[in-house]
TrEMBL record:
InterPro entries hit by this protein: Apc36109-like_dom_sf
Domain of life, source organism: Bacteria
Protein name (database record): DUF5071 domain-containing protein
């Protein structure tokens, strides 16, 4: 029996996330904590910040392309749609707080 198509995608994304976590464990942990604190999808199943690690890998892969907080909000929303589905990800507005905080974190990191 073969794996579903999304399985290979998820495995690939997790490998990218593992690599990014190794490259900058402090940033990776900070973004996990940020998502845990903001909880844009209101996921009661995530009991610790590291529960967001798969999504954070996907986010950090794309984040360098962002030019604004709005870009970050779209990236966050798109990543959660990819990982969960549009139904579970909810609307773009749910990601505003997380985007604001992530953009501030990212821009402060880039200016160091």
């Amino acid at each position: 029996m073969s794996q579903p198509e999304w399985f290979d995608w998820a495995q690939s994304e997790r490998k990218i996330g593992d690599y990014l976590q190794e490259q900058d464990p402090i940033l990776f942990a900070a973004v996990c904590q940020l998502l845990f604190d903001c909880d844009p999808m209101m996921i009661p199943l995530v009991m610790e910040p590291q529960g967001y690690a798969p999504e954070v890998g996907s986010i950090l892969r794309i984040l360098p392309q962002c030019q604004s907080e709005e870009d970050v909000r779209e990236v966050l929303h798109n990543v959660f749609v990819q990982w969960f589905s549009s139904e579970f990800a909810g609307g773009l507005g749910q990601y505003s707080e997380a985007a604001n905080k992530l953009w501030a974190l990212w821009t402060s990191q880039q200016s160091e």
